[in-house]
Predict the 3D structure of the following.
Amino acid sequence: MKKLINHPDTVVTDALAGMAAAHPSLSVDLENRVITRAGEPAAGKVGLVSGGGSGHEPLHGGFVGYGMLDAACAGEVFTSPVPDQMLVATKAVDGGAGVLHVVKNYTGDILNFAMAAELADDEGIEVSSVVVNDDVAVQDSLYTAGRRGVGATVFVEKIAGALAERRAPLTEVAAVAAEVNERSRSFGVALTSGTVPAAGKPTFELADQEIELGIGIHGEPGRTRAALQPARDIVATVMDAIGSDMPLEGDLLVMVNGMGGTPLIELYIAFNEVSRYLAGRARIARNLVGNYITSMEMQGFSVTVCRLTDTLAELWDAPVETPGLRWGR
Amino acid sequence: MKKLINHPDTVVTDALAGMAAAHPSLSVDLENRVITRAGEPAAGKVGLVSGGGSGHEPLHGGFVGYGMLDAACAGEVFTSPVPDQMLVATKAVDGGAGVLHVVKNYTGDILNFAMAAELADDEGIEVSSVVVNDDVAVQDSLYTAGRRGVGATVFVEKIAGALAERRAPLTEVAAVAAEVNERSRSFGVALTSGTVPAAGKPTFELADQEIELGIGIHGEPGRTRAALQPARDIVATVMDAIGSDMPLEGDLLVMVNGMGGTPLIELYIAFNEVSRYLAGRARIARNLVGNYITSMEMQGFSVTVCRLTDTLAELWDAPVETPGLRWGR
């Protein structure tokens, strides 16, 4: 294992300390591994809390800030945070208007966020949850009943965060979060595996000229392995998979997301192929190209597509100021 | 070679087409491989042109936009663009106030930008150049007489771009660019090599537990190879090297830059160590943590430090709106 770390046991806390040092707009509770915006709670504002295993940076901590999340809980690499962390985060951001939990569909996250919501309810905090399950690759997966939650999480956090910033009530914020999830689909591809520091070796093995189609963000198996192909053919497989699950028409928000170890020049090549694929079928009205939900140093990419409405586009465009996503303020 | 590409011959044009598709604010001349801001030239504004080999994305094309570059020329991967490209870019952004060429110190870039400046002069365009040479690792290098130009390029482009946006004259824009370079130092470390698509194999080989200290952004040899160490020790070597060349005191702008294949979680760990190292010696007044000047899928990082003045800090904070760097507008 070749990593820029001090020790496998301190990866998450060292990285959180680095985030604290880099971003004065964030308040980092190293003991509880909770990142909140400075100035929380905001009175009368629905608080947005997400979290999950580490190793997917900038998700989730990098999306804490104006117009997006109020707090994020960091688990160990690829391991769910515990309910106590989620409760700390929920209490920290409760400004009296309730809290929305944005939960990726992995069994550990689902159970722990559910328990945290109960604990918060006991303390008189109203909590709603949205479960993100946008990955069309496989029906059930290694850590998941139903579909995995992947790239749409970024869209949900951004769009629901924008609505919460306008002081919309919890029911509306939860509804738009669910709507974004329902209108979004993803599919991922791995060229190489990442390595979990505590495991010390790659999560899976691929041959020199082999790729995995439908990979999960923790290296969960996809649909099939295939020979390395031109980007155009890989993207066609990805888009066919998405398009067979949701009509690719109208105005789309498209993210070409790097898995952590793929350089930006290759992501732009992939985006070009997505753009070619969609030409004449739909309009890419908004896009993101870069590393947003990663899998340690995995080489590969995913595509996430959201069918926009005018309202969703307008919320997407709203100002956001986080380490991982920033515009317009 | 395992890459998300169509063919080694089309890497640069496919990626440029992807940038064009992703960023409507840019105008991409695929034939000449020149990226300019839409709306160029801006009357009365000094035009900022940079460029170099591809494979360092987001540098340079990703830094074209409000408050930073007016145009960038893309060469083949790790290969200088040619004078004709630079001339096209220079003419495209000449709004009557002259053009500044931001040139990283590699022999090919130096020669080609010099020729382009002559050609532009023949056409009545005033051109100044700043040569960036911030890498303290080695005195001469594989493609360089003198020090290599690396991370400080990002600082030069941002700060000179901010001053040009205010319609400062060419002499002042060139002077601040030179000042930023003089006040900046960098040092890079490789954990793995990147692969140039046309070469088809890694540029260099490192053993399983071996790193290269002082690596160049094209894989040029550094000072020494060493055993893989904790991030804290690697960062100490990096900062000692920088600190032995420039006093680390006062207000600093610090970039912890990923080489392309290193995940963000590790970059935050490195930033934390830089922050610890500097504690009690200097203040990190501004920072960047992420992939800004990469070397294809190389795993590794570099640190760039600029000793700020109040003026430089204020120009750093000025609004910028590019694909790779965006804030405050």
Q: What stands out?
A: The CA atoms of residues 42 and 95 of chain A lie 5 Å apart. Chain A touches chain B through 63 residues (CB under 8 Å). Helices of chain A lie at 11-22, 83-93, 107-122, 152-165, 170-182, 231-243, 264-278, 310-317.
